[in-house]
Automatic annotation (TrEMBL):
Residues binding heme: 393
Domain of life where this protein originates: Bacteria
Protein name per its UniProtKB record: Cytochrome P450
Species per Swiss-Prot/TrEMBL record: Streptomyces radicis
Name of one Pfam family that matches: p450
InterPro entries: Cyt_P450, Cyt_P450_CS, Cyt_P450_E_grp-I, Cyt_P450_sf, Cytochrome_P450_Monoox
Keyword Ion transport applies: no
PROSITE patterns, per database record: CYTOCHROME_P450
Family: Belongs to the cytochrome P450 family.
Amino acid sequence: MSSSTAFTHGTAPGALPVLGHAPHLMRDPLSFFGSLSRHGDLVTIRLGPRRAHVPCHPELLRHMLVEYRTFDKGGPLYDRAREVFGESLGLCPHDQHRHQRRMLQPAFSAEKIAAYGVIMEAQITALTASWREGHVFEAFPTFFRLSANTAMRMIFGAGCTDEAAATVRQSIATLTRGLAVDLLLPKVVQRLPLPVIRRQAEARETFLTAMDRLVAEHRVRPHPASLLALLLDARGEDGRPLTDDQLREQAIAFLSAGTDTTAAALTWMFLLLAGNATAQRHLEEEVDEVLGGRPASFADLPRLPFTRRVVTEALRMRPPGWMFTRATTARTTVAGQVLEPGSLVLISPFTVQHRPDVHAEPDAFEPDRWLPERASALPRGSFAAFSNGGRKCIGDEFAMTEATLTLATVASRWRLTPEPGTDARPKPLATTLLPRRMRVRVTARHEGGEEPGTPVDARSESR
């Protein structure tokens, strides 16, 4: 961290008795996080009785993400996630991370991403081929099914049935939504027999049972192109093959990380595009020139730079992983504040990605701010939608590929327009940033360009 920068510390105003700032986070998290940089580069807030420290300067944010031995994955959000999902790559403490990262990195090589691209193309094409002129659907549940089906087939291969994918998809949705309760609500509230708590327990049992069955089936009939096939040949730190529990935990990690976030990114993407006619036109011009009305393939990606910039800009404006935590493992000083071991750090990429002194006109949707010559001038740490440092999301390129292929394929034939009643406010008590409600209408971009398709059954739109 630069010694020439004098970082400031402040305390966020407006804390309520007992609850602290939790109501602000639940009611209007984007406004709350967007306001914090006005109070300092490191800002202290309260979540119930506990203090949390929020880095609001790009250099501080990057420092905390890069120095992951001192700022380790921890806090109530990760504690609860480990209880549900186990200590997989995305959740394990730093002393387990390096081995797991090396073990799993081959699954995300350029060659593997290209192979996964074939799975993505098939799922995206099947979805968009089912649309017709005037079809209306709920955006997030539809894109969630797309990303979950893709992730399931990447993990388990061609042997993953539609029935198994649906069971896992429905339970993982409930589990990931409920994790925010552990961070924002006091423990005394979490012990009450609330519907959300009961749904969590039921979903966890269903989810783990389904995953155990899939892992057991994979041991008997492995599919060579799957992530689990790679893990069956891997070795743990003790040199032994992975147990069923370890296989399940790693499968869960990629499923939980690659479903909600991608679906939320796509939902925000089409909402933001609908509000910017210039960006919409440039996107359509690019896909028309490259695709000519056909679905996008992995080989097309180098010729779709503006499409990728749209994805990046949507992630800047509405990062799906809008809030996560770290816990200090040693006494350290940040912005003049001494943080004792066990101090809670609350990280929100939104805070830095909306600083006007970092990103000019931060509330404007401007994909060309990610032109290479402009992006290279940004300070390090100014974009953290996939985190940074040694614990940067291992599936970042997988997610970017899936989102870019989906956006290009949709835009090549269709335009999605939000229906009246769309509520762009963030959904409360959700670990993934997503609109409360967004229904979209499908319009064919080219006369006669619509192909016959079967409308999606409205009952399959909900989870």
